[in-house]
Amino acid sequence: MTEAAILCVDDEIVILESIQEQISRHFGDRFLYEAAESAEEALEIIEELNKEGVKILVIVSDWLMPGMRGDEFLVQVQQQFGDITKIMLTGQADLEAIERAKREANLYSCIHKPWREEELIEIMTTALKLA
Fold first, then answer.
1. Domain that holds residue 38
2. What pLDDT tens digit does each residue of the chain (131 aa) get?
3. How many domains does the chain have?
């Protein structure tokens, strides 16, 4: 079993599948790829993987999701699992939310929708070097 994972979080399944497909096409079987349709589901996945000894290297999270916004989710991840690199992928986050995520969640990067695959892969590549 792969010991390192990348977690993608977005409430829109089409976007979630697209992100995962682009990342896995580039990085192949070097990582375990997990997906969550909400911040709450993502926190459960993080807990499960942590118990199994799988290290999550990078989280790519949407901002506008039902229940918990992406900046709130990433702050919570930072407080519980500070060593995970965090990327926000958003079409609607305001500057205040992005700044909060940078300040309180140690946000590595913010990618705006619609994103370019090359930009996503470039940011992921550098983020994984830091992980």
1. 4-130
2. 459 999 999 999 999 999 999 999 999 999 999 999 999 999 999 999 999 999 999 999 999 999 999 999 999 999 999 899 999 999 887 899 999 999 999 999 999 999 999 999 999 999 999 87
3. 1
CA distance 103 to 29: 33
Could you tell me which of 46, 59, 61, 121 has the C-alpha nearest to residue 97? Answer: 61
8 A C-beta contact, residue 3 and residue 57: no
Q: For residue 105, give the CATH number of its domain.
A: 3.40.50.2300
Query: Which residues touch 70 (CB under 8 Å, ≥6 apart)?
Result: 9, 39, 61, 62, 63, 64, 88, 90, 93, 97, 101
**pTM score:** 0.95
